[in-house]
Amino acid sequence: MRGGVFNTIGSLVQNKHEFISGYKFNLCFENSLGLGYTTEKIVDAYFAHTIPIYWGNPKVAKDFNPKSFVNVHDFKDFKEALDFIRYLDTHDNAYLDMLYAHPLNTYNGKPRFHQDLSFAKILEFLQNAIECPYVYHDHTGFRHTGTSLKHACLSKLKQMKTRFSRAQDTKIYRGK
Fold first, then answer.
1. Can you tell me whether residue 51 is helix, strand or coil?
2. Share of the chain above pLDDT 90, in %
3. 83, burial (CB in 10 Å: exposed 0-12, middle 13-18, buried 19+)
4. Which of 12, 19, 23, 40 is found 20 to 30 A from 161 (Cα to Cα)?
């Protein structure tokens, strides 16, 4: 680990992408296994031009090209996954094919996410999540009883939504 908590390398890393780009592979294990729960970890590996070794969302291959990363879920156990990683490490053509494969799947001839996410859809999701009155994760120990955080987030989302709408109107007006 490179950060301040559970640091195992002895010093903080100033630039994560620069640091992991020095390696052929990058472990991209989520904190928990959950359908649809994919964080920045796999994307960080792609940006650093290294092969992600992913564990977490069992449906991650709906968004990310399974030929561009090692999906631990595709193997019967960790030993089998490690055998495949060793194979990639010792067979340059197989390694380079995976390294240079497009990270996203292709839908209707274009690389994109399975749900065809747009900025507007992400804003709508965040707004719904903030406005939701239910607590889904009682085990976290985090409790926010005030509404100031909720109002601040909603206000920021509304500002972003307004800016996005104006930008979209400008594009339409210009005929783009």
1. strand
2. 40
3. exposed
4. 40
Residue 73, pLDDT above cutoff 50? yes
Q: How far is CA 65 from CA 38, 81, 107, 125, in A?
A: 14, 17, 11, 24
Per-residue confidence at 17, pLDDT binned at 50, 70, 90? confident
Helix (H, G, I), strand (E, B) or coil at 55: strand
Contact 138, 107 (CB under 8 A): no
DSSP annotation of 104 reads B
Give CA 80 to chain center in angstroms: 24
Sign (positive/negative) of CA torsion 102, 107, 111, 115?
negative
Distance (Å, whole) CA 34 – CA 13: 29
Tally of domains in the chain: 2
Q: Which residue bears the tokens 């592979």? A: 25
Q: In which domain, by residue range, is 32 found?
A: 16-111
Which of the two residues, 76 and 35, has the higher pLDDT score?
76
Whether the per-residue pLDDT at 27 is higher than 90: the answer is yes
Rounded distance between C-alpha atoms, residue 7 and residue 1, angstroms? 5
Task: Tell me how far apart the alpha carbons of residues 17 and 48 are, in angstroms, rounded to a whole number.
Answer: 5
Kindly state whether residues 30 and 101 are assigned to the same domain. Answer: yes
| Three-class DSSP category at 78 | helix
CA distances from 174 to 43, 164, 170 (A): 33, 15, 6
